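Colleagues,

Please find the record for the two-part complex below.
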Amino acid sequence: MLTAFRNKLFSRVPACRFATFRTLFAFANLIYVIPRCSEILNGYFNSSFHLPVASWIPALPPQAGWLLIGLQYLSGTLLFLGLLPRLSAGFLLLSGLYFFSLDRYFYSHNIQLHFIFLAILTVSPNRLSLFDLVRGKKRGAQAEAWPEHLVRFQLFVIFFYSGLDKIFSPFWGLSGSFFVYEFGHPMWTRFSPLVPGIISVLIILFEFFLAAAFLLKPLWKFAFWAGFFFVVGTELLISPTMFIWDILAALVLFIPSANDAIPYDPESRFDEFWKKILSGFDWLGRFEWKPVHKSETKNNLALPQLIFLIPAPLYLVLSLTHMKLLRISHVHREILFSGLVLAFIFMWVSVREKKLNPDKNNVLILNLNRLNNDRDLRKALWYVSKAEDILIVDLLWNPAMKFAGRNIPRLTLAQSASPESLSQDIDWSLSLMNQMETAGIELWPAFKYQLMANSFAEFLFYILPLNKLLSEKKPDHVVLMRNGNKILESVSSLIRLRNIPIQTV
Amino acid sequence: MVLLIVWLVLQIGIPFFRKFGTFPFTYRYATYSWAMFSKPRVHYEVSLFRRNSNGDKETIPDVAQFTSEYHSAKTRASDYYRTPAEIKDRFTHLVNYIAEREDPNFEYGVSIHWVTLFDPNEPAQWEYYANRLQK
């Protein structure tokens, strides 16, 4: 068990993920935390009475204070750029701890979380700089996973204890007394006296769900959106500022790498320009650029819209709305913030739908999973729900299914294989190999092997029937449901040979 | 590896013992234990003043040098986030601090009126006085 734990902590993960977290976190540090330290010092120097956390903590003379603030800005900038990140984070941590221990009044949970993240950054060996992220040259770089796990674990600890505290706290509990205390008996309590209690329990349950989603890998896919809506909602309700930016930066660690193939025309200046912009912000390496001539581009998505699928620009723009230099009132700030959030959600959904719901009429969904995975299949169907003609093709037999009131037919590849056509199929398969090699399509090594060895049956029962099906059905779009299946490469090669666009789910 | 385990144990252990103490693990509100919003704000009104030998309340002339938040002897509403005990502790220290530095012929005081408070056993008013000569 200890070995498994050790392997998990020291496994190799893409270095760009933690570096993106560090960069966004450092940005929030620059625009919130250091100005906050500056404000605190201002108040500190304006009055002589202070109650330090411990009596031995030395008082701070004004000159030394402003020098430390200057050094904090320097360290913050270095941390943002990813230059000397450990030294910068260490300095920010120690100087911040000192500032906030000058008076017990300065303590907040927000700053405690911020310091814990700084401590993790101080010991993290990740050395990918902002320049590396923007240039994307070290995209394949890997790093040890433990700093990511520490951040995720910290999120779990925060929300777990926050939920637990609310259960035991006499001020919150399960009766909703907190709401009655804070808001009196507003309209909603007139419907039922149980309403405050129900709200109270729901919040506790949601915090426990968040804690579980941050800790357990199968729930990570929910962690990003659940966390996003929670902190954005919290921001709009109570404006805790620093907390939401630290959490939003940490949510980057739950975004899976997509490797979406994005077609672009290298001869088009517009495409080249947007490729540069998007690549510059695609710090997580979500896009894989495929040079395609314009006439062959079957993507119905304009490149600028893809900006909504990468997190860094959204984070930078959103956090700037709360910058002190932006001299607008609190109400206007929140309106601007919520407007941007709504615009982001709307654009994200619209781009996702456009990207995954191509304007095609004849769609073939190829289920390479050996099991009848209904949930994934419904997801694939949702992506292509506008298509008029949909056929699901499975490796193994599965019953037809109903989706959005339509009966979607299903076919099993092996059904259409016939022993009679064996010799004919072998001739065809050899000519197919020649065609592929002539067309410059790289054959998966085992593809050839499949033709001659024990896996021949798989080739016979899956690849040949699929080729026939593609000839007869002539789909203009294929959705591939993959699950690490070994025939995936052969199938992809076959479909690419026919110039049919593929969307993988 | 050992340091990582120690870190994880501390992160999970410290909030637990701050919240529940040692056996028999009784709950209490505590800082450094991730207890966000589990305790409502304590709303109160503060007045800082000094009293002459007749017991009349007066303004502390240069209170701003000690604290920039309060203007003697005006009452100011506040909602410091944590417990009444912490608030009392802070103002006790503040009044002692002022008394040590100001005219010893006066008695320095703070009066706090709890506007909203959960504990019904707590009196609605709390006052504290200090005088350098009486120490």
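The longest strand of chain A covers residues 362-367.

Comments are welcome before we finalize the supplementary table.
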